[in-house]
């Protein structure tokens, strides 16, 4: 099946049309008729030659299998015009966002990838800062607990002294317990 192709063919004027043009020129002025007749014959001949060369080029293109159709040429031009950046950079286009929109449209995958990396970066940084704040809070809490433990240990050490225990027993009226006067001795049990 053969593709339909648009062909522009110029048909040269018929002899009747040529004679009509010559009659009009002759009726315009009799003195200029001879000179204009020569000019019109020359211009008609040039037009005919031009038309014949165009027709031969069209026929050559039709016979050439590598020749592009009109649709292919239009698609290529449309594709080229889409990829080329706008040639006129003006203040109104810049402030209106046309240039930025063109850049974003042509590099949309890169823009999305950069946006994804920014979101990941911001999220990780936020989590890291939250953990650092929590670590600082826990360290302060640990320091506070250590101070309290030291105070409680020193208080317990003072209260567990022998002299303090005896004073406490005397104040409560318990006199049965006394400090031993003899040193302790060891009992040996044979095995």
Compressed to H and E, one letter per element, the order equals: HHHHHHH
Q: What sort of overall outline do the alpha carbons produce when their principal axes are compared? A: rod-shaped
Q: Give the C-alpha Rg.
A: 55 Å
Helix/strand/pairing category: mainly alpha
**What oligomeric state is this?**
single chain
Number of distinct beta strands: 0
Detailed description of the structure:
With 191 residues, the protein is mostly helical. It contains seven helices and no strands. It has helices at residues 15-28, 33-63, 70-83, 91-96, 98-106, 108-159, 162-172. Helix 1 packs antiparallel against helix 2 (33-63). The longest helix has 52 residues, at 108-159.
Summary of the model, kept short:
By secondary structure, the protein is an all-alpha fold.
What attributes characterize this protein structure?
191 residues; mainly alpha
SSE order and pairing:
Elements: H1 15-28, H2 33-63, H3 70-83, H4 91-96, H5 98-106, H6 108-159, H7 162-172
Helix pairs in contact: 1-2
């Amino acid at each position: 099946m053969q593709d339909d192709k648009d062909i522009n063919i110029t048909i040269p004027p018929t002899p009747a049309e040529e004679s009509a043009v010559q009659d009009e020129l002759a009726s315009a002025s009799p003195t200029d008729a001879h000179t204009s007749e020569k000019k019109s014959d020359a211009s008609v001949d040039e037009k005919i030659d031009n038309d014949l060369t165009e027709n031969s080029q069209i026929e050559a293109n039709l016979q050439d299998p590598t020749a592009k159709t009109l649709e292919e040429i239009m698609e290529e031009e449309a594709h080229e015009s889409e990829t080329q950046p706008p040639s006129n950079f003006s203040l109104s286009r810049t402030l209106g966002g046309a240039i930025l929109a063109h850049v974003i449209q042509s590099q949309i995958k890169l823009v999305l990838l950069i946006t994804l990396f920014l979101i990941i970066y911001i999220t990780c940084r936020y989590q890291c800062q939250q953990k650092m704040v929590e670590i600082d809070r826990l360290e302060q809490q640990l320091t506070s607990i250590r101070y309290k433990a030291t105070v409680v240990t020193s208080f317990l050490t003072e209260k567990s002294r022998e002299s303090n225990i005896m004073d406490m027993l005397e104040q409560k009226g318990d006199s049965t317990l006394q400090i031993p006067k003899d040193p302790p001795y060891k009992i040996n049990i044979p095995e």
